[in-house]
Specification:
47% of the residues lie in helices and 15% in strands. It is an alpha+beta fold. A hairpin with a 7-residue loop joins β8 and β9. The protein is globular. The chain binds 2-oxoadipic acid and nickel (II) ion. Its EC number is 1.13.11.93.
Amino acid sequence: MPASAHVAPDEIRDLFSRALSEMYRAEVPQYGALLDLVAQVNAGALAEDPALRSALACRGELDRLSVERHGAIRLGTAAELFTIRRLFAVMGMHPVGYYDLSVAGVPVHSTAFRPVEDAALGRNPFRVFTSVLRLELIEDAALRAEVARILSARRIFTPRALALTQGAETAGGLDHAQAEEFVREALETFRWHRDATVTLSTYKALHDAHRLVADIASFKGPHINHLTPRTLDIDAVQAGMPKHGIAPKAVIEGPPRRKCAILLRQTSFKALDEPIVFKAEEHGSGDGTHTARFGEIEQRGVALTRKGRKLYDTLLATARRDAQSMASDYDTVLAEAFQAFPDNWRDLREQGLAFFRYSPTEAGLAAAASGQMLAPTVDGLVAQGYLRFDPIIYEDFLPVSAAGIFQSNLGTDEQRNYRARSNREAFEDALGAKVHDELELYAQAEALSLHQAWAQLGIGHGSSLNRHGMIPTAH
Ligand code: OOG
Ligand code: NI
């Protein structure tokens, strides 16, 4: 089949994320209420702040805002992880980052499947936080064997989803009819199942090991457990939730409210207690409940460099430690700790704390056209007003926040202390690929923007450009 007959992976991802959102809206009505609230808050924020509107428009983020969301699933086996990577690849989603949640007492490790290129992110940045059970963290050997047996018997992908994934790999894509069928079939893996594949007593044993183990091993598939829209004002949504009949968790995860948003702030509403029909057993009824699915919202800010991330991690750790010993509330302690994090774009850039996308200004283009002498460094060009810089948005997740989101839905009794080390190698072996390094992706996006800016200013190309470096002279 000629390549031109293929539907672009970006289009398939867009179709899929819309279909998934519709499915989840029908399954969890509170998610629909949350979407409405977020749409209201976002419209209000844009109307009130024309500068915000034009900044988003300029960065190409205005159009993607209403379709922007992430979801999360929890898989059971290495084979499931291997296959989901292939399935997501059909939609232009690739594994980025490694998150070890065992340090937070959750027996999984994770990656995020997401688009990696600027154009694809601009089209629809849909991401899925994907965890896989670390079987070795189940202490009881008999239960561990039982979980392995249950998981090895299930098939979470439909035969057609597998065939179409294989077909896309061989042919290099899917045609229109195949893409639509692929979306329908792939959706089945993410669907909720009211019927458990285990008896109530097995469920209880799994639940006693860890509630997450029960969530992963009791069902036919890895139901999507939340979908998270992006808001422009998370504090407004947090405050507005109760009025919409939604009960938010107590604190917003991540950095405090700031003028220059960094990384990611998230909050969620509590998981719902849902009726389940368990497999019949000799004694007792098969009816029970399971708590798994919830709603979450997030506000995204600039991606931080390694240096910026280190500062973030240090200040967050300080705030979390102080919050335990001080009488003030967490938000106050957090805001105080983050006084040490510069809160204006100029300092964030000059101190190398965040990533930016550079582009020539009108004045810069005019100066270049008139043959004027241009400053020989990025900083010089910025000072001359010839180069502008816009924040590169953080597209990933935060392990401490993710643990907080997991915990808020597990109840306080679920703190475990796993002594296991993080095991990225085993994760990548199961995945059948290396995960992308998110810092490298942001650095590449920044470098690419500089190359394009040089070309537009007629300065010539160089391969070793960085924020502060000299512009190499053309030979
Ligand atoms: C995933 C929790 C992590 C986030 O936004 O940090 C997450 C899960 O509960 O499966 O989605
Ligand atoms: Ni989430």
